[in-house]
Design goal:
single chain; mainly alpha; Growth Hormone, Chain: A; 2 domains; 20 helices; 75% helix; 0% strand; globular; MFS_trans_sf; Sugar_transporter_CS; transport
């Protein structure tokens, strides 16, 4: 970084330009945590059938093997904040990378189902930590003028992680001729699906060593010279007075902060403030509409209704591409249309498409692995499933994370967000673990249930969710 004093009188606009160029790399490196979030939670998709047959699992144990990582994620998300305050943001990201690396290797070399559950729990903790610390770090190092766009990199990284995981699963399965077949080093393809996750985990751990510590953390620890150095690098500030003012602003905000407690969330409605319940229900409905069934079980689903294993993997990859593209559209629309209108549009669309999927599967014959969708219902179900992903990706996918980050009052934001995030992981676990059991009752029943929750989400948004577009964070109230 050139620290030529002649640049110290540069305009604010020039400083913003330098700041944007410098901070993009930092934000991208941190956002790999979001990539791992998506990769680790979706990589199980291609391995479900092979794991079930290889270990002789029933529906209940299959569901738990797939969803157990989400329990670890809830734990990791809950403790990420205290860990980051103790160790620092960068060191905490390295801890998350280590957990994910151990999980990738351990899951690929397991000898039994409970070994797999154990290592998936370890990976889940890493995912939970990464899902919280990456966006928090990006917000703390980003200049205000680009914070929103850089913060959106987390959601984009998540859907890219899902896409790469499903693409990797498909390539490995096709290379081996099936997920259960041997590939390299006398290991089945499904084991390599887990092992390959060690590559992005290593990349994450290495890249975050090159990013600076959060200036907010450094000031909180009294390491003011280091904080000044980071601010000079990240914001391209060269004026000593400006640096002193920035450090003093951070120190003042930290001194004025009161660490929120769970007791601060108490309110008149069932023991909690209304805004807290709104956050919890946003998180729960995001999962109860069944989106992760598509990303965790879709290969099994399409295989079970007549598509070949190869075609089932290809369909799953195509669906993840759709998810990436519509997330880009949502990022472009969120500040133009608003959060609430997009949620309403998404709820209506998901109700219709999930209802159509339920109708399609009501036409199926057979059951279990012999389930068959007669023409044209198989193709209609495929189109409806991808339309459902479009509706979710435009709305409830990114909008819930946007709202949770901005809807709570300053004095309770951190603890309320932790509660809502934990509720989201637990709801994800409930839906993911019960799908194999629900599918045994009937896929029509399962998707009909998700359609019902999508309809409830519409009523909830219309009655309980406030629009936050254009409102300053300081003006949010309970």
């Amino acid at each position: 970084m050139n620290l030529n004093p002649s640049k110290s009188t540069g305009t604010a606009k020039e400083e913003e330009g330098h700041a944007t160029a410098k901070v993009v790399f930092i934000a991208a490196a941190a956002a790999i945590g979001g990539f791992l979030f998506g990769f680790d939670t979706a990589v199980i998709n291609g391995a479900v059938d092979a794991v079930r047959h290889g270990f002789g699992l029933d529906a209940a144990r299959t569901g738990f093997a797939v969803s157990c990582a989400l329990i670890g994620s809830a734990v990791g998300a809950w403790y990420a904040g205290p860990l980051a305050d103790r160790l620092g943001r960068v060191r905490t990201m390295q801890v998350a990378a280590l957990f994910l690396l151990m999980s990738a290797i351990g899951s690929g070399l397991v000898h039994g189902i409970w070994d797999l559950v154990c290592w998936r729990l370890v990976g889940g903790i890493g995912v939970g930590v990464a899902s919280v610390i990456a966006p928090a770090y990006i917000a703390e190092v980003s200049p205000a003028n680009v914070r929103g766009r850089l913060g959106s990199m987390q959601q984009l990284a998540i859907v890219l992680g899902i896409f790469v995981a499903l693409l990797s699963d498909a390539w490995l399965a096709n290379t081996a001729g099936g997920a259960s077949n041997m590939l390299w080093a006398h290991l089945e393809a499904w084991r390599w699906m887990f092992l390959v996750a060690s590559v992005p985990a290593l990349m994450y751990g290495v890249l975050v060593t090159s990013v600076p510590e959060s200036p907010r953390y450094l000031v909180a620890r009294g390491r003011l010279p280091e904080a000044r150095k980071v601010l000079a690098e990240v914001l391209d500030m060269h004026n000593d007075a400006a640096l002193d003012a920035k450090v003093n602003d951070i120190a003042h905000s930290l001194n004025a902060e009161v660490r929120p407690k769970l007791s601060d969330l108490r309110g008149p409605r069932a023991g909690l403030l209304p805004i807290v319940w709104t956050g919890i229900f946003l998180s729960v409905f995001q999962q109860f509409v069944g989106i992760n069934v598509i990303f965790y079980y879709s290969s099994t689903l399409w295989h079970s209704v007549g598509f070949s294993e190869k075609d089932a993997f290809s369909i799953t990859v195509a669906t993840s591409v759709v998810n990436v593209l519509v997330t880009l559209v949502a990022i472009a629309l969120v500040d133009r249309i608003g959060r609430k209108p997009l949620l309403i549009i998404g709820s209506v669309g998901m109700t219709v498409t999930l209802g159509l999927m339920a109708w399609c599967f009501s036409q199926a014959s057979g059951s279990g692995a012999s389930l068959v969708l007669p023409a044209p219902w198989g193709m209609v179900a495929l189109v409806a499933a991808n339309a459902y992903v479009v509706c979710f990706g435009l709305s409830w996918g990114p909008m819930v994370w946007v709202l949770l980050g901005e809807m709570f009052p300053n004095n309770i934001r951190a603890i309320a967000l932790a509660v809502a995030a934990a509720a989201q992981w637990l709801a994800n676990f409930a839906i993911t673990s019960t799908f194999p059991w629900l599918s045994q009752i009937g896929l029509s029943f399962a998707y009909g249930l998700y359609a019902f929750f999508a309809f409830l989400s519409l009523i909830f948004v219309m009655r309980a969710v406030r629009e936050t577009r254009g409102i300053e964070l300081e003006d949010m109230h309970a």
